[in-house]
Amino acid sequence: MDRNNNKRPGPPAGSGKDKKRVKMQQARSIQIQNTPSPSSSIHSTPAASPSGSSNAKSTRTLDVVSFAEARAFEINALHKAMESSRNAAAQRAFQSLPRNLRRRAASHNIKRLPIRLRDRAKREVESDPVKKGKKPDNRYKRRRPGTLAEEYLRRQGTKRWLETHIWHAKRMKMVEIWGYKLAEHSNEHGIKSAYKSSHHQCIIQDSSYNGCLEITGTKKDISDIFNHMLDPTMPTIGSTRYITGKRQYTTFLYEPDSFPKNLIAPVTFLWKQEPPSESAMEVDELSKQGQLWIWIHPSAFEATKATIQETVLKTNKAGLVNIRDIENSLVMFDFTGPRSTALLKAVLHLCQSDAASSYQEAHKTWETICNMRSSSSLPPGIVLGLLVEDPRLTFPHKAEARPASIPSQESRKAQEIITQWPENVARSSIWEAEGREQLLSTMTPESKLNERRAQNLVPGTKLLPTVSDSKVPLLLIQREGKPQIQRAPGGGNSEFECGWTLVLPKGWAMPFWKSMIFAGARPGGLRERRSFHFETHQSCFPYDFPNTAAYIDYAGETKKAGEQKYGRIPVAKRFNYEKMGVEDPFGAAWVKALKAGVMMLGGGEREDLKEEDIWLLQTPKMIAALMDAGKAAGGSSREMVSRLTLESLNLVMADCLQGLVKTALTPSLMKEPSARIDEALVRVGVDFLDRGTTGMNGMIYAIPEDQYRVWAARVQMKGKRTVEGRPRKEKKAKSWVDSDSDEEMDEAEEDESTMDELEMRRPAGTTLLGYVTTGQYCYSEGKSYGIGCVTATGLARMVELETKQRLEHSLSSQGSSNGSGGKAGAGPSTPLKVPRMMVLVRSVRSKASRLAKLTIVS
Amino acid sequence: MVRFKNRYLLFEIVYADTPLGWTSIPASASLALTNASQPGDIADQSPFGDTGRNNCRLPPLANKDLLFALKDSIAENFGDYGAGLTQRPLTLKYFSPHTNVGILRISREEMHIVWGALTFINQLKGRPCIIKVIHTSGTIKKCQLTTIKYDRDRIMFLRNQAQLLKDSQAYTQLGLAYKESSDEVNSLEI
User: Fold this and answer.
1) Looking at chain B from residue 56 to 115, which residues have their Cβ under 8 Å from any Cβ of chain A?
2) Rama region for A117: left / alpha / beta (φ>0; ψ in -120 to 50; rest)
3) Helix, strand or coil for residue A248?
4) Compositional bias (Acidic residues) at which positions (chain A) (predicted)?
5) Are residues A626 and A509 in the same domain?
6) Which of B96, B30, B146 is nearest to A32 (CA)?
């Protein structure tokens, strides 16, 4: 203390020693009364005034109150100072030990202290103030069902839990999203493991978070309402394909009468199948009463609900149809992978009793097709209504080994069913709300089942279903992957795209889920859902749907998170995006790309381009028309210049739309082209032609006109590594860039260096086409792949340039071959062997722009 | 073990206008006269007349003033030698301008120099006074305890006086103050 005599107690910053010193000083200081202080409590009144000096002695007064107060205050202050300094210096017994002898919780358990200190510690503990607070409830109390339910309700807070939440929370990373607490990914399996499971095993995801709306009314009315909101280029929900409830239907939902703008979300429809009525054979299907379920992604659920209600009012159908939110009365599981059917076969024990009489046909169908390897060969979206036994009776289940072959008789039967899908197999009592409620209330408790198990003579025998056991009605829906139209000829890898969706009444999630898991299904989360879409080159809502409200939410949050994470890294240790010329590393700037697209078409600067006007062009025929327009403009010879312009493209689009939309239901669409082509994005897949990777937000650039030949030459030179898969040896076919000389090797080397330089060159902002929305290593491709969006204008311009280049090439090569050998020009006039739609793609973390080709992705 | 050995001096400043032994309790006659002579002052309702609170024309004595006075006194009486000796450990641990009681810390060897210097101080900021040392001890705690005892004695003394003068109001007030302080002491259990 002496050392610091003259120092003021500084701010408590600095070392622990300093802090301690300040603390001690504070503890030792004595408080001084700080009311307006008298110089003394005893005073001569007019000490300073000459007039009062004469009677100074006689007027001496003592203010007893202030006198006593001052003394009392002093006594108090001194006591406090003594006490606080004593406390500050005080040490508990366990504190007096050197650090290496200290033991955890020694303050609590004095037996952890050396014997010599125990007496002291004991005394200290005795004089401790009694700790207040309720003793925590014992485990028995805490685990009682009522308490548990209460506790779970408290923990849910504002977020909703799925029925399988507890199971997931123990094993998966949970995230708060879309008003739910959902599983993001498994704690112990990585992306690759999940990919393997989906490719060889079965991945199951609890997708009960999808909101469900029930709409009742005449089928005609319902269909009419939705005609205003659905993609008019696709079949309506009133079409015969779907109206009987034989299949589910996935399509895109737009705000009323604003197609192709204002996409809300992809939605899935399913009509209730009614039992065939003998009497009214002639009645038109549309005029019947119908019940429709709509499944909507939770991120767009509220918006969809509001839009539907709005449309109902608009079309004056308010009294005719009834909309009900049945969000929490269904459970939905998604199955993906080749073992799905086998697992379902193992777990679903079809009910054989009389109760299942109306399910006879469906059961027969399921028994036939359940031996099939996957659901991909079934008609897309077909629905099976089954009645199954409580899976707990026969728990655990074991999936059969993969059969080496299917008996020819069975396969013939399956063949028959596939070609002639039975009409009445989608009926199920799951559609009735009271039925669902009753099923839940009469569910046999686990304890009763255990009692029955205990009575089994041989332990471990499965229970036999009794009449009182619940029979669960369910829907088994074949989930198609990509829409049939967009699938590659020959099916492609559709086996991995397709799967099953199981719809159960509420309350039955856990029994089925547990059975599935024990039978060998791997659980998947949101990450698996997205990566599954990515691996099969499908877009995933909302991640790949720019400018839906759900996407804007998602993109905003991702951007914020990315920026925050970036901001936490020291400047010297983080990637310098600015230096690398990456302007938007954390989120796509669509407006920027669209402006660049307008510039590409020579449309000048567009200042009024707004974020909310952006729309997604995803009708295949319209995209085809766009590309055709590009091709036509590029293919026209140089003399008759018919360059692409915004106006011409807008016209082409409007024409195409007119041709596609035959119904007169959307007249507003035709009047004025509200959907301008310069605000449109087209979803594409990014396939690297050579090396190169892309992460999220990779930038897609068009190849400048003057560089096209060089890049094309590179693709040809690469030989083995081109998409055509030609081995390097065969690249004898000369580069079409006027190279008559024989020293190919030299040229190749020379080329290599110029190419590197070209790759490192930063693409100009005016050639920006779009961004990658999902990009990473793709296991099914064995290389990096990306799903992104490019501007429609940019795409058209790109196609135009490409066609022009090809034309020029074929002209020049024809000219040369004609010159050398007469007739040879007609045959192998070396057509340009480069893939179409070549672009440059640059990852946000790389200097190099790599060559890639685009494909249109659904 | 070698350590600094200190002495703590408990002192009290007695001003010249303070009656010795605090005996002077004014007659109520003089009260009216005082108030008349100072019409600007608003006296409170205490039977003892003008309270200190309303009459604080003089600035309170700061610790700094006291220390300067003390150092001056040392330099004057003991020369540079004395000043040099007492320089380092001289600290005013506590001083209350309300009660005019303070605690000084000095090193043990130089105690008498400081004590002497204190004794030679005869005025503070132009106000004639003497400083009397009430207690010396080796720890601050004993000084604090003595202060407490001293203060309580003072209050008791006044209380007895009030009893003698049959001033019941003052008597109860002092009794309360006394009780308060003793409660403090009891609760702290020193």
Assistant:
1) 56-61, 88-89, 91, 93-101
2) alpha
3) strand
4) 739-757
5) no
6) B96
- Yes or no, beta carbons of A63 and B185 under 8 Å apart: no
**Tell me, what's the pLDDT at B186?**
62
Q: Which of A243-257, A581-595, B31-45 has the lowest mean pLDDT?
A: B31-45
Reported as a pLDDT band with limits 50, 70 and 90, residue B168 is confident
Q: Is the pTM of this model over 0.80?
A: no
Contact between A617 and A597 under an 8 Å Cβ cutoff? The reply is: no
Note down the domain range covering A607.
563-818+832-856
Give me the pLDDT at residue A517, please.
93
Residues 117 through 176 of chain B touching chain A, CB cutoff 8 Å: 127, 141, 144-145, 147-148, 151-152, 154-155, 158, 162, 170, 173-174
How many CB atoms are closer than 10 A to CB A241? 14
A582 lies in the same domain as A655: yes
Check pLDDT > 60 for residue A809: yes
Best interface-test mutation with A: which of B2, B45, B98, B144 has the largest number of A CBs within 10 A? B98
**Which pLDDT score is estimated for B61?**
76
- Asked if B50 and B57 count as a contact pair (C-beta separation under 8 A), the reply is no
State in Å, rounded, how far the first CA of chain B is from the last one.
Answer: 28
Distance from the A1 Cα atom to the nearest Cα atom in chain B, whole angstroms: 10
Label residue A280 by pLDDT band (50, 70, 90).
low
Q: For residue A476, give the DSSP letter.
A: E
In a domain, A529, yes or no: no
SS3 assignment, position B109: helix
Please tell me the distance from the alpha carbon of residue A764 to that of residue A703, in angstroms, as a whole number.
Answer: 10
Give the pLDDT of residue B54: 35
Kindly state whether residues A725 and A639 are assigned to the same domain. Answer: yes
List of E strands, A598-698: 615-617, 680-688
Lowest mean pLDDT among A232-236, A546-550, B167-171: B167-171
